[in-house]
Amino acid sequence: MKDVSRRDFLKYVGVGALGLVAKPQLLSAFDRKLWPALDASDVVQCFHDGATSGSTINEPVVQMMVDESIMALAGVRNVGEAWKSIFPGITQSSIVSIKACNGNGAIPTHPAVVRCMIDGLARMDVGGSNFPKNNIIVWEDHDSQLTQAGFTIYDGSDPDTVRCFGTDHSGVGYDSGVTLNINGTSANPSKILSQMSDYVINAATLRTHNLSDVTVSLKNHYGSVNARQHTNKCSPALPALSQQIRDVITPNNIQKLFVVDGLFGLYSGGPSGAPNFNPKLLLMTRDTVACDAQAQNVINAERALHSLPALDADHIRVAADPPYNLGSLDINLIELNNLGVGETGRPAADDGLFAVSPEPVRNRATVTFTVSRPGPVSLELLDAAGRTETRLFAGTLRPGRHSVTWHTTRQLAAGTHLLRLNGAGAIRTRNVLIVK
């Protein structure tokens, strides 16, 4: 599997990107008044050299990538408010579902990427309280696809625990009361999509496909229905399916965000098989067509390096045109490259502060610590065996002193636990006593 350097990554910009409209980096997302109205769609493409190490995903770096991507897309420099802007009218009782893409267990929508999105969703202030994690559902066609990718099935009601299950999970199934017309084929949607979701995040992967050239957000929904068409390279079946999801399922236009987990990918030989390139990037947009068009650009850039012909998936072009009108092929690419790497500034003195107050901890405590330089930071609670019990924080921080408010959960046992702080190239640990 090829590991992509920063120099090689730059080749992804513009290769095969016909119709690409590039705005200045970063600033374009935060002052829209500087630009006239355009029909092109914003796509955030966030790359970080440190996103993976070999086959290991560096979750604190990915958290930073997700946070910065949603803020760039929304034009809001607050993670919770940026996420909240994606879901108009959201309330404490709303359900946000994340449709994962785990048909290829070797290149799934990774749990680490989904956890980072959940972290941001849970930071939304909705009606004066954080959005409850139990109102988030991570789903796929089958329970087994989720467990094989590393997710844990859960259908309970603990407010601090995300629900996760497939359409084949007991009590779910397909909705016989809703029929979608997929280019002449009748199909029923998953009840998770038609009955249990108020808003949907489409979390796709970056792969080629022998039947559709590429498989990204449009094809992800073949895992959302009980009938599919694969003739004519899935075109116009794929655009027809997304049009039906948009216009037939209520609320209409239920899909609000499209994310591509491009930490690893397949530039040839898909959809099955192990990853054969390592782009170390995420894509994020509100437009399914722009999402898949830019994903195809990334794949084609890698194919060019191997003297392979460019792919031009028909279903992406068809999706942009009438009668589907699902999005735009014109892209305003907002690039975020190696955020937190090579930043300058006076380092803060690291006085080793790593304090918990009050202690012992009963229901709530504040963890205070210092970091000496900007970059990804994670704070986790471990049990006596060294297993991670919960993540208190993951994201990017500036140098200086920081505080994290910690609410304990009923599941935590009384006794001595371990806090682990990973940041600025160093790991610090300390014991903490929890009492009931």
Automatic annotation (TrEMBL):
Highest taxon of the lineage: Bacteria
Domain annotation DUF362: ranges: 106-295
InterPro entries registered for this protein in UniProt: DUF362 (IPR007160), TAT_signal (IPR006311), TAT_signal_bac_arc (IPR019546)
Coiled coil: none
Entry protein name: DUF362 domain-containing protein
Species: candidate division WOR-3 bacterium
